[in-house]
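User: I'm curious what two different proteins look like when written out as structure tokens. Can you demonstrate?

Assistant: Sure. I'll show them one after the other, since each token string lines up with its own sequence. Here's the first protein:
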Amino acid sequence: MNYDAQPTVVRSQDSVLATNKLLRNTYSLLAMTLVFSALTAGVSMAMNFPHMGLLTLVGYFGLLFLTMKLRNSAWGIVSVFALTGFMGLTLGPMLNYYLSMPNGGQMVMQAMGASGVIFLGLSAYAVKSEKDFSFMGGFLFVGILVAFLAGLGAYFFEMPGLSLAVSAMFVLLMSGLILYQTSEIIHGGEKNYIMATITLYVSIYNLFTSLLHLIGTFSGDD
């Protein structure tokens, strides 16, 4: 008789329950942070905040570091909302810029809709297929670093062509990051829902802004 069968089944059931709980916590917090980010973006638009330039990077990395330090405490939740709220504020000037263009509202809605479809589609695929995308980690890290540095070069040297290429790169990289992070949650590579939320939020944020840039350019209005 196999006496190890029952404990193995119990461990398997516990693992599934833990994964489902992590997914629920992550997507619940993600939904709340997206709503909060939208609210702060609305405030930024209404008050006509200027573009923050490099202050965006300083604020983002500072709050990201704080969130990582506090991820295992209740203050981590506060830090998550501080980070996503700040990113919403930085989004306001960009939205005002595109909304001032002809068909600007349509472009924003197209970028928002495409971001939602990509996120939901890739997340559902990763969850349903249960494929392990951990092999993408190294590629994504290098790719994001290269794209980030190229983006800085495009910003400082005012190179529209390079900026467009960076946006296209970020669409692909953020799509890969959604698959990777969802896979990490399912397979136990990520057990902290705060960090999982931040990764998915940043993926959606960059996906949306990159798509908006591409749509604006190919619409002939950017």
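Here's a second, unrelated protein for contrast:
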Amino acid sequence: MSDRLAAARAVTLFVEAAQVAACTGPSRASDGRDPAAARAGAGVAVAAGVVLEVAPDAELRARYPGAAEVGCAGGLLTPGLVDSHTHAVFGRWRADEYALRCQGVPYMEIARRGGGILASVRDLRARSEDDLVELTLPRLREMLQAGTTTAEVKSGYGLATEAELKMLRAVRRLNELQPVELVPTFLGAHEVAPEFRGRADDYVELLVDEMLPAVAEQGIARFCDVFMEPGVFDRRQSERILRAALEHGLRPKLHADELEGSGGAELAAELGAVSADHLGAVSEAGIEAIARAGTVATLLPATLFFLGKKSYAPARALLDAGATLALASDFNPGSSPTPNLVFAMTAACSQMGVTPAESLRAATAGGAAALALGDGRGTLRAGAPADLALWRVQSVRELPYRLATPLCAGVWKRGVRVGAG
């Protein structure tokens, strides 16, 4: 066998798709440019776990004679989805709280009765690391079957040094046990720990003096996040935590302006945060600040839908200002108990005025930008990891349109089929 033929046979061609969406376009649809960079009649060549090229099927077959083929059966081929904001490691679900909310019981009343984030804290502290790994594995399988191949996972249900480390160690183990690639974020500042009630500054001291050094020493987180919100952590406290995180080599993220405008977006821009997340109550100044700074605006519409909110983050204003948009699931047991990122795309299109092409780019290349992944993840371009998802629809516009329908027909990680179908 000639060297050329042998090389061709090491290639796999994804062919016969109705559309291939490379997701290499701009964040916002404008001047006829397509954020999804969708092409009809095209295929994808893959070898050694990376994308070689996107080109017409006939050209690929001529260029790689004898290559293995994956028939896409007239479906839509996209990059694997990148979910850049999740809380996937937790103990029990909180359906009891959902039932109360459905009866009109306010969130603060549920919290007074022992619900909310602190319910998850009590539960998680009592569980072993092994238990957390076992509970999370099926959730990650659901995520994979819905087309997600990379996901961020935050700590934040421990709120004590060893419990936070336990969560992050579980994330590290989960990365070795299943195919969804997990990016760990330290969120010890998710809430003030219950034993520090009324002493938030003392808890900040614990975060800065004990938790952050321990996380950095073990090398088990890439980012540090803070929930900056009135009644949780104010600007002064949030800045102190994130500047300390920078000193320990952890890049900042921020839960910003979720329920009330508090200057979170402005602080994220000032600190050069990788992303500012939620942004339901972001100010005009905050929009301009993160757009100028290049901080990714990560929006979580499934959360607002689940909580029954009537207003959503200003996606169009963010896009028009030049911000990079990411969409994420916010998968967690209290306010967004779904790992389905396509549903977040649907909610963004229906409630935020995002186009289907913009929503797909935000759930792929946008998510990769929100995690500072510089390897081409979230796109189908030469040299990018061959993470792909095949969908039982014929066009990008159909993917968010088919509300809550299981559409994923196949998932590949680094060129190896790992799920769906």
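A detail about the second structure: The two ends are 34 Å apart (CA to CA).
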